[in-house]
Structure to design on (250 residues):
């Protein structure tokens, strides 16, 4: 369990998350993921990184139970850990292909929204249930996957979008049966890794350089409001009433 790195073939590194039951990562897990992605990208033999996960879903975000048990210190840790993991994917020296199955929620959106390409299984769904959990964040990354008004609607309603819907918007490269996902992601990584390694790294830096939004700064701004919600008490109130009648009342 945890985060592991493998090398399925020349030029390709795969970073895999395995944290049962739903790949909701604790604070330490986010930092471990960031370290693994950065190390894979720094390896001179790597030309493409595949970010994958084992289990029912790709990622269910942060470990809410850890935050409830440890309070603001855990929330601060989760904020920093998520910021580092998302940035590690974005700043990885080589392209990153995300292989997404099942649910991709909360922090999962931060990861795939910062990836260079996404391959998803037919059962994959993407969303930010943050408002239902008394939190905010990762709208920065959802905005990289869907058009602005759809992003707002998904964010305010906590609804999810399917892999097929994201494919129609151009943010998912391929949608395949679940059992075909590992090979489909590797196929794309293999095609990328066939290019000149130094040129790929220059291309990644150049593409990041022309992005209209500074994703690290944008996400950290969102996190400030997440902490404000926690300090005001509204975050705990929403979490405590989630799923109960009147949960959305003031």
């Amino acid at each position: 369990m945890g985060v592991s790195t493998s090398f399925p073939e020349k030029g390709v590194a795969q970073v895999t998350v395995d944290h049962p039951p739903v790949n909701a990562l604790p604070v330490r897990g986010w930092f471990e993921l960031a370290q693994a992605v950065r190390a894979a990208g720094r390896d001179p033999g790597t030309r493409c990184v595949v970010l994958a996960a084992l289990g029912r879903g790709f990622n269910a975000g942060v470990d809410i139970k850890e935050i409830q048990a440890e309070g603001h210190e855990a929330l601060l840790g989760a904020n920093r850990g998520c910021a580092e993991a998302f940035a590690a994917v974005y700043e990885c020296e080589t392209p990153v292909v995300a292989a997404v199955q099942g649910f991709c929620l909360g922090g999962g959106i931060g990861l795939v929204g910062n990836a260079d390409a996404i391959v998803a299984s037919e059962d994959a769904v993407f969303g930010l249930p943050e408002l239902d959990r008394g939190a905010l964040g990762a709208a920065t990354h959802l905005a990289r996957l869907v058009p602005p008004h759809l992003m707002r609607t998904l964010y305010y309603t906590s609804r999810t979008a399917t892999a097929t819907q994201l494919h129609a918007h151009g943010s998912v490269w391929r949608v395949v049966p679940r059992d075909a996902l590992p090979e489909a992601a590797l196929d794309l990584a293999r095609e990328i890794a066939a290019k000149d390694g130094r040129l790929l790294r220059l291309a990644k830096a150049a593409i990041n350089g022309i992005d209209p939004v500074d994703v690290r700064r944008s996400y950290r701004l969102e996190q400030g409001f997440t902490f404000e919600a926690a300090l005001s008490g509204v975050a705990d109130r929403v979490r405590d009433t989630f799923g109960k009648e009147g949960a959305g009342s003031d």
User: Anything to note?
Assistant: Residues 120 and 177 are 8 Å apart (CA to CA). Confidence is low (pLDDT under 50) at residues 245-250. The longest helix spans residues 72-91.
